[in-house]
Amino acid sequence: MAKKPLADAAASKLAQRQEGRGGGGAPTLVVPRRVARQPKSFRLGPVHLERLRRLSERLSDQAGRPLSETDILKGLLLFGEKADAKKLLLSVKDAVFEGS
Q: What pTM, to 2 d.p., does this model score?
């Protein structure tokens, strides 16, 4: 199929793109996202929910603005990556057996 100039389209954006494209170059591709975010839910006991609420209040006061519980958990995950594995395992063990 032969390409015709888009004379009827006047000065539309599509006409400008099509005529300015040149000699049949490949169209620009949309860069795909790295990883789609997947929702993840957790069940926390009353002790752990209260601990998270207190931590959220304390950090919000320190920051001078409200911080969501999600932001707090993201920070704790980052902190956990940098922490010593043995100390972290002891804390996990204490938390699991304390809340049951």
A: 0.58
